[in-house]
Amino acid sequence: MGEAELDQNNHRINIHASLIFYGNAANELLTRQIAVDVSSHWNEPRANVMIKRERYTVNFLMQGFYAPSLGEIDVYENIDPRKNFFRIEEYASGNISFVDGINSNTGYFKLDNLLNNSTTAAHEFGHTLGLEHPHILDIRGSGVPGIMYPRGTIVDSPFQYDPAAAPLQPGGTINPFTRKVLLKDIEDLHLERLSFDENGFAVLGDFTSIWHEAHVR
User: Fold this and answer.
1) pTM (2 decimals)?
2) Helix axes 120-128, 28-43, angle to 10 degrees
3) What is the residue range of 171's domain?
4) Domains in the chain, number
5) Is the sign of the CA dihedral 31, 80, 201, 124 positive or negative?
6) How far apart are CA 45 and CA 136, in angstroms?
7) Inside any domain, residue 213
8) Is residue 214 a part of any domain in this protein?
């Protein structure tokens, strides 16, 4: 979830979002790393969009906050569309990170999904802004996979876990580390459809406001 700001003077559309982390595996260093990673991925296309017949540069302004004392009421009562709350733990049921639906502001991250320049947080952030997994999951011949392709997608061999593996055999599906935010991912946000208020702000996504307890093995 985030808040879009239409800066008409500088012809920029700024997407403001705060990533707030809690849980036993969250810490200050990891928080900073994730915020930088998500920002870098989503700004990489240097995208431009047309709004009311004028071209605007899309600029993602991400902030990360470590909140070890965050409470359930802080999540339930939040009305700030810029705030997203994610629990981080070493263990997650189903062995995956997730958000609480398409258009959401809460979720649960598995620690090892977030390490070593992973694209998991950037992928899940796309869900919070309203993006779904693509319907066609065999994209051989398309080159670099976009950020919203899920694990299990069939891709060109350089983007597999094992480039030498046959498709769908062990190692023969998408390595999530190879995903990138592409221009199409920005276009799929349909920023031109937003209804900006008199101050030039509009909301992307919606409130799910779900507090997560740590999963138990």
Assistant:
1) 0.94
2) 70
3) 135-181
4) 2
5) positive
6) 22
7) no
8) no
